[in-house]
Amino acid sequence: MKAIVYHGxxxxxxxxxxxxxxxxxxxxxxxxxxAVCGTDLKTFRHGNPxxxxxxxxxxxxxxxxxxxxxDAVGGFGLGDRIVMATSISCGDCYYCHNGWPNLCSNxxxxxxxxxxxxxxxxxxxxxxxxxxxxxxxxxxxxxHAALAEPVSCGVNSLSQTDLQKGDTVLVMxxxxxxxxxxxxxxxxxxxxxILSEISDARLAQxxxxxxxxxxxxxxxxxxxxxxxxxxxxxxxxxxxxxxxxKPQEDAMHLVRKRGSVVLFASLPASAATIQLDSRAIHYGxxxxxxxSDSAPWHVEKAVELLESGQVPAAKLVSHxxxxxxxxxxxxxxxxxxxxxxxxKP
Length: 345
Prior knowledge:
Layout: E1 2-8, E2 11-16, E3 27-36, H1 38-46, E4 55-56, E5 60-68, E6 81-84, E7 87-88, H2 94-97, E8 108-109, E9 121-124, H3 126-130, E10 134-136, H4 142-145, H5 148-159, E11 168-172, H6 176-187, E12 192-196, H7 200-206, E13 213-215, H8 222-228, E14 235-240, H9 245-250, E15 255-263, H10 278-284, E16 287-290, H11 296-308, H12 313-316, E17 317-322, H13 326-335, E18 340-344
Parallel strand pairs: 11-12, 11-14, 12-13, 14-15, 15-16, 17-18
Antiparallel strand pairs: 1-2, 1-4, 3-5, 3-9, 3-18, 5-6, 6-10, 7-8
Helix pairs in contact: 5-6, 5-11
């Protein structure tokens, strides 16, 4: 079979591999779409110490069940379309026992610990089935189903807040995940979405989603904009989807008292220390929280939002390419031309 294989930084190859075999407690899935995410691009550029090469890449995958092991659990049938919460939990650690499988001490992600979905076939490990990481989807286009994983991260992000119907949400960063967070917030009842972004090209891409306010903080006063749209109070929820320190620092002054600030985007390990105004947090009784990955129930909600059109997959999937054009997918992402590129076997 054809697969995209990671060998090291700047060394990702399209190779012919043997078709994998299905173990007794596993599923064999014929992949028909795998979205390319920022982690994949960073892995290509800089490598990833969590991946031991050679490794088939891809975790935003979907496909149809082709073979079912005799001991596989979950009630799946031949031909079922599946998606995944692709960072697979162990089911045994403190975090798993407390209902936080995305924070598992022994996470084993697809494309990192197990061969991923940028291939014609993928084996779904028994551990994923036993711990509920595989979700059957209704009938939808493959390239849309492949968005279930990134959308689930947005669902987890918003679940960290006290979002109420009628709230105003500020999302900082209009890349693919900023737009996804904005769509999820709208679907969960936010009345007004303010989306900030320093790239005019990214703002132009966001126009088709119909958010209430688009603002470029490089040319306009973001604080004044937020105040103007919140009766001077500040946003009820601020989500930082831009991987930069300044938005994280500024957010404490853009949220209302007792509001929520979600640090969605991660900063590089070498530049992860930021300065926060502790007085704003203290006297404003702010809730500042991180969010990481997603759990199976977040994926189930993501599938619901995609199926209903509340998250408009057709607008998010900007490019579809065959597997052997993975480097073109990376180019489209790096240039900002792509919102979500999907590779198809």
